Amino acid sequence: MTWVGGGCHCGAVRFRARFASWDAIDCNCSVCTKKGFLHAIVPEADFVLEAGAEHLVTYTFGTHTARHLFCRTCGVHAFYRPRSHPDCWDVNTRCLDGDAAARFAVKPFDGKNWEDAIGTLRAPS
Q1: Which long-range contacts (CB under 8 A, 24 or more apart) does 80-87 make?
Q2: Nearest CA to 28 among 17, 41, 37, 18?
Q3: Into which CATH architecture does domain 3-120 fall?
Q4: What pLDDT digit, counting tens, does each position of 31-76 carry?
C-alpha cells in the first residue's frame, strides 16, 4: 500500500491515507449527494492529518454519530468519521492529489435507505 496525499481546496487542511483497495462508494443520501463525496473508508492506522486541525469544523445531524469535518476557510469536506465505521476515517477520493481519484472503481450505496443497506458495506482491511 502506498500513501496518497490530499487536502481541501485552499490547502489549509492536508492529510495522507493508504488504501487496501481502490474501491470508492457513491452514496445517494442527502448530505453525500449535495457534497459530491466519493467515499474510501480507511482504518485509523492508514490515515494521518498532516496540517490544518485548527481549520476543521464539525457538522453532525440525525444520530450525530458521523462527524462531518470541513475546512472553515474553503468549506471543502475532505474526510470525516463515518457512522458506518466510527473507528475509521472516510476519505473523499475527489480530494486526493493528482489523478489518484481516477484509480478508484466507484460502487453505489443506497444511503437513502441507510438502515436497510448498511449490511452491504464491508469493513476496511
Answers
A1: 82/39, 82/41, 83/114, 84/41, 84/118, 84/121, 85/41, 85/121, 85/123, 85/124, 87/43, 87/44
A2: 37
A3: Beta Complex (2.170)
A4: 889 999 999 999 999 999 999 999 999 999 988 988 999 999 999 9
> Which residues have C-beta within 8 Å of that of residue 2, sequence separation ≥ 6?
18
Residue whose C-alpha cell reads 469493513 in the numeric block: 123
> What's the grid cell of residue 76?
471543502
CA 52 distance to own-chain centroid:
16
What's the CA gap between 90 and 85, in Å, rounded?
8
The CA-based diameter of the chain, rounded to the nearest angstrom, is: 37
Q: Which tens digits make up the pLDDT trace of 11-39? A: 999 999 999 999 999 999 898 899 999 99
CB 87 within 8 A of CB 44: yes
**Residue owning grid cell 500513501:** 3
